[in-house]
Amino acid sequence: MSPLPISSLFLLTRSVSAGEGDMDKLFAAFGDLKITSFRDLLGKFGLADLPVGHMYGIAGGIFVFAVTIISVLVLLVKGGSLTRIAEQAQGEGELAARMLTDRTALRKQRGLLLERLIACRDYLVQAKAEAVLSEEKSEYPHVTEKLLNFDPKLPYDEAGVDTPPEVVDEDSNAVVVPKPGRMVSDMQKILSTQKKGDAAEVTPEMRVYETHFIEAYRACQDLPGGKILPGLPEARFEAYARSFAAAPDNGGTTAKWYRRSYGRMYEALSCRTHGEERRFRKLYQTRPRDIVGRTVRLEPLEPARHAEELALATCGDAHGKDTEYDPMDVWGFLPYGPFHTAYDMAAGPIFDRKSGEGGFAIVEHVTEKVIGAILLHSDDPKNLTIGIEVPVTKPTCDGTVEHMEACFLVMDRLFGYGYRRVHMSCDSQDAIARKVPGRLGMTQEGLVLKDQVVRDANRDSLLFAMLNSDWDKGARTFLFGKLHGDAAARADRLNLENGEGDDQKTASLKEQAERTKAKKEKAKADDQTKKQK
After folding, report:
1. pTM here?
2. How far is the CA of 212 from the CAs of 78, 229, 243, 257, 277, in angstroms?
3. pLDDT tens, 146-166?
4. Can you list the positions of beta strands (E) in 166-244?
């Protein structure tokens, strides 16, 4: 029987005040609800004639329901859920109060950057300031310059053939002159530089390169990335070492994971066959600063080297195997172009990069032809952000592996340098350009209305970005798998995990050695103190 509502009780009270007759009737009605057994209870609901089994089923259901309700209440009370709800409500109130009363205190509670990112920011800011104040004009814009590989300037002749210098024999430690025609490895040249080079003539950057080269060489000796090429036992070691050491050190802030991944990728590409090994070795000897990928390499933009080929690839005229097309397919949504001559291309914005901008020519490995360019802008090392533009390529390259790998090579190096955000914008009506950030795994951040005026018309811009946290958590692995295959992506992930383990062991051993050294120095100092007494 459900309890009477308040209104009914109120009416009953009024009835009582009016007279006793109604109350007598009410008690008389309730007097018939005498329940002495479970069967009487069922009878009040018209269920007294049910079979015994059904009655016990109903009784069991009521019992289970009661136990469930009691258990839930006990768990809520004993488990602390009610307490947490109360604390959360109280915390929200306190948070709102703090936001209204003390914004400065709330600001101080923000999480700080990792020490490595702070070191990256400090180095990049200082490097940019030095580039602006430097009296010597660099060959390339600062943004391009800092992304290029380091050139160790090892002794090669102009044709890319080894010039046999004096080298150090590892067994006798004596300086010997190789016989004519003998292949001199980069490792021998570096050891020779270390043994007989004048310390004043060797730059700090070269010393860092030598350290990284030897470290990577020995690591690859212990665990090669594949089978050793017959007749070239050192080829795989040197390929990994020179690519591992090639990434600029940036004051020790360049991530080790990037060096390992880039090194293994380069090692796998250059050591597939003897012909590939010769081709990549000669390419390194003639152009050591290029960023090399599986299908393309990125060369710093040079008008004399790239303007003509880039103009031919994007002007719309029939060229080689490319048929004629409308050049506005390439330039229609850009504020410049098309360029039909090398002179016009060289004088245009692609080669005339301003402060905070850079650019690379995209060269296809198979044809050795320029297929486009990828440009960078809005470099902000203080906040560790930078922008890249949708690559300018001929229409047949839109959405291809070459197109995506050019973006991947730039983004991977930027995140390896410590950048936290790489952003990209495009015209909201450019259906082809809008697909590029989606393929790269970027997140759409918004739409900027009336952002630019392009060709005397309004442009609304879509904004996309990739964060370093998203890159590390899976975006990089996904893109690596699309470019190199799932097997290569798994091998790369395993390589990075093993590298992190090795770094932890090295750091632990170094810390242990430092503690041991400190104990010995303390014991020695104590002994000297006792002797003096």
Report:
1. 0.74
2. 59, 23, 10, 13, 21
3. 999 999 887 754 444 444 444
4. 167-168, 175-176
